[in-house]
């Protein structure tokens, strides 16, 4: 039995799709000067940092979160891989309603120990997987990465009696991007490994990725339970049967499970069935938006709703400037019909020429979708267009996509390529694209995310692509989409895409999938090319992102320590060692994005058991003359932030123990110099005194041991 935590990556995991290593091609190793020149623009990391970190310190993230109903922008995303605690399991299966396929899947899992649930998104497959596993075992349940390959599933270690789930699986070797479904032999290898271990595995996926699974393992086509059954199970006796029946008749058969559950919540709160259904499914707003489009609005009116749907909260003249720019793009893409000849009546012609269009008042017409804020009384009049109802925004984008061909969307694409060059419009534009992706995911990925991530419009586009995936990572329903895209960029993209992916994995996506993030960033570091240093810096940013999680930050520390131990200061691993030390320096220097304190200080407070590992990394950084100054500054900040004397002593003790006597003497000199500087500038010195005290204690012990020696 493998005592290691089964969801932690091992050496095999970090070697998926490796690039050339420093050991393999030392001739291509960049010099120190070149390595320093390949560091990413600090403003790029800082700009993304404003968005990807936790919402309570991030106004820009709040802007995007507010633009999406149910996007979860108010909370930091939690990891969706790893062991599921019992409380979460109970929450997931509470009120679970078994659809008809459950009767097929349950006995198949009990007998075969492995089953695949295939079906459309948003039909409850995740809840079903957890429920099925809990029915066959009371031992821990572990969620594996959605990007794990069949070959890895066939070779990894499983713990006897444990349950494993892969949610929204897409095998990087046989997924949608490759067009090569997995063979029966590959599925049989997974089944054999699971059976040999005495574990249980449930994979959920879409139909087109199953391949020949049905011949080797049970592949059950999953369907959601009927809305009527869901409503009765959810509401029980709290609502009368007649009212539930009336509600069920109003709910479309293809309504998402989450939608049916929200309707049930409103019924339980006393809402009328029609009102509950209308509110959840936006039926009234949808009818209004559809009716407006059926009235054949003018070109200008269409352009107005396009701008407002993609760039909300743009005020005053800025909105009208953006409107004019999109009108120009549309005129080039879809030239307007030729105007009819002027009438002979000169008086009528003069009248038309002299009349200025009252655009703002016409825009706010009662029959329109747009309203404007204005001052009241003697207050100055302000013009800030907005949709009359917040839900109009998504509905307008849906109708636009359904009604108009590529002529409009080519104009929108050209316009947005220019818009995102303006710094203050990048986040709103990204919000619009992510919302558009709910109805046109291929359009957004192929026309925007792919070319932007490839560097088609420079750093601005890469940042916006990173913003988009970072937002998708906050949504339970679309986080795996972000993971699949970022993983593909790392493994198969060009250098610009890998750089963009490094940004994404260091933030929200890393918080969701810490194991994948550590693995993919490490995949970039040993390649010893222009991306190695940015990936090393991203590893430090990932550590700061994960300090509020469970095990992710500790995995960064473990990986760097183990990899450093395999390198030497001379020879073929010298450059790899330099890159690992760059990552270590980044880990020691990064600040917690929530509190602003050093991330390592927060980490030590929450994980005191990691002090020895962290002390060893700090010692390695201090030994290196290139990193010593910054490592010493980071130590100063960390000790100062550890307000508790015991915590500061724990860090100092772990660090000093990792140094030999000569290295301790050097650190003692550095600490004394730092102490003098603190006194000179009136800074507190208690934390430096703790370090010096620990050093002196060790020096006394060493001298005493020497005196008693032979």
Automatic annotation (TrEMBL):
Residues 25-35, 342-352 have a biased composition (Basic and acidic residues). Residues 1-39, 333-361 are annotated as: Disordered. Residues 1-15 have a biased composition (Acidic residues). This is Uncharacterized protein. The lineage of its organism: Bacteria, Bacillati, Actinomycetota, Actinomycetes, Streptosporangiales.
């Amino acid at each position: 039995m493998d005592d290691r935590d089964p969801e932690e990556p091992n050496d095999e995991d970090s070697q998926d799709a490796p690039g050339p290593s420093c050991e393999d091609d030392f001739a291509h190793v960049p010099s120190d000067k070149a390595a320093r020149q390949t560091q990413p623009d600090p403003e790029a990391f800082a700009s993304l940092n404003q968005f990807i970190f936790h919402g309570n310190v991030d106004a820009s993230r709040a802007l995007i979160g507010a633009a999406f109903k149910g996007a979860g922008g108010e909370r930091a995303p939690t990891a969706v891989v790893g062991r599921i605690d019992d409380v979460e399991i109970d929450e997931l299966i509470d009120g679970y309603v078994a659809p008809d396929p459950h009767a097929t899947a349950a006995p198949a899992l009990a007998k075969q120990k492995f089953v695949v649930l295939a079906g459309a998104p948003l039909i409850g497959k995740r809840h079903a997987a957890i429920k099925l596993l809990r029915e066959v075992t009371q031992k821990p349940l572990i969620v594996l990465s959605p990007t794990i390959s069949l070959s890895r599933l066939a070779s990894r270690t499983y713990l006897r009696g444990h349950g494993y789930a892969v949610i929204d699986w897409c095998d990087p070797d046989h997924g949608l991007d490759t067009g090569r479904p997995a063979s029966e032999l590959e599925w049989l290898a997974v089944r054999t490994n699971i059976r040999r271990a005495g574990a249980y595995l449930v994979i959920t996926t879409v139909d087109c990725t199953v391949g020949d699974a049905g011949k080797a393992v049970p592949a059950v086509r999953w369907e959601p339970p009927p809305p009527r059954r869901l409503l009765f199970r959810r509401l029980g006796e709290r609502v009368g049967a007649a009212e539930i029946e009336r509600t069920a008749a109003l709910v479309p058969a293809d309504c998402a499970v989450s939608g049916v559950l929200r309707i049930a919540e409103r019924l339980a709160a006393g809402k009328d069935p029609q009102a509950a259904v209308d509110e959840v499914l936006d039926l009234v707003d949808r009818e209004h938006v559809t009716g407006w489009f059926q009235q054949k609005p003018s070109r200008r009116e269409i352009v107005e709703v396009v701008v407002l749907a993609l760039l909300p909260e743009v005020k005053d003249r800025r909105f009208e400037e953006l409107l004019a720019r999109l009108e120009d793009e549309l005129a080039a893409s879809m030239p307007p019909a030729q105007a009819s000849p002027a009438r002979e009546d000169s008086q009528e012609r003069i009248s038309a020429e002299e009349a200025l269009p009252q655009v703002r008042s016409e825009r706010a017409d009662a029959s329109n979708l747009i309203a404007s804020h204005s001052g009241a009384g003697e207050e100055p009049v302000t013009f800030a267009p907005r949709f009359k109802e917040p839900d109009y925004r998504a509905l307008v984008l849906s109708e636009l996509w359904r009604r108009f061909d590529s002529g409009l969307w080519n104009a929108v694409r050209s316009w947005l390529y220019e818009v995102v060059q303006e710094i203050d419009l990048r986040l709103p534009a990204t919000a619009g694209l992510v919302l558009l992706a709910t109805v046109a995911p291929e359009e957004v990925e192929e026309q925007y995310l792919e070319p932007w991530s490839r560097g088609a419009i420079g750093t601005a586009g890469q940042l916006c692509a990173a913003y988009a995936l970072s937002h998708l990572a906050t949504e339970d329903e679309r986080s795996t989409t972000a993971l699949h895209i970022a993983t593909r960029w790392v493994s198969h993209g060009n250098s610009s895409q890998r750089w963009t992916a490094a940004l994404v994995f260091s933030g929200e996506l890393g918080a969701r999938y810490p194991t994948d993030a550590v693995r993919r960033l490490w995949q970039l570091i040993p390649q010893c090319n222009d991306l190695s240093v940015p990936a090393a810096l991203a590893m430090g940013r990932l550590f700061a992102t994960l300090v509020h999680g469970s095990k992710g930050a500790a995995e960064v520390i473990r990986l760097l320590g183990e990899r450093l131990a395999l390198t030497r200061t001379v020879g073929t691993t010298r450059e790899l060692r330099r890159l690992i030390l760059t990552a270590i320096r980044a880990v020691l220097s990064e600040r917690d994005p929530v509190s602003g304190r050093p991330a390592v200080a927060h980490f030590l407070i929450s994980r005191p058991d990691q002090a020895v590992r962290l002390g060893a990394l700090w010692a390695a950084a201090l030994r290196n003359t290139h990193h010593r100054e910054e490592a010493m500054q980071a130590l100063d900040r960390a000790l100062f932030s550890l307000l508790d004397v015991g915590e500061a002593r724990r860090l100092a003790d772990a660090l000093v123990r990792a140094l030999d006597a000569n290295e301790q003497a050097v650190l003692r000199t550095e600490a004394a110099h730092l102490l003098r500087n603190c006194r000179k500038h009136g800074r507190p010195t208690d934390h430096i005194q703790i370090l010096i005290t620990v050093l002196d204690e060790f020096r006394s012990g060493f001298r005493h041991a020497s005196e008693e020696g032979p």
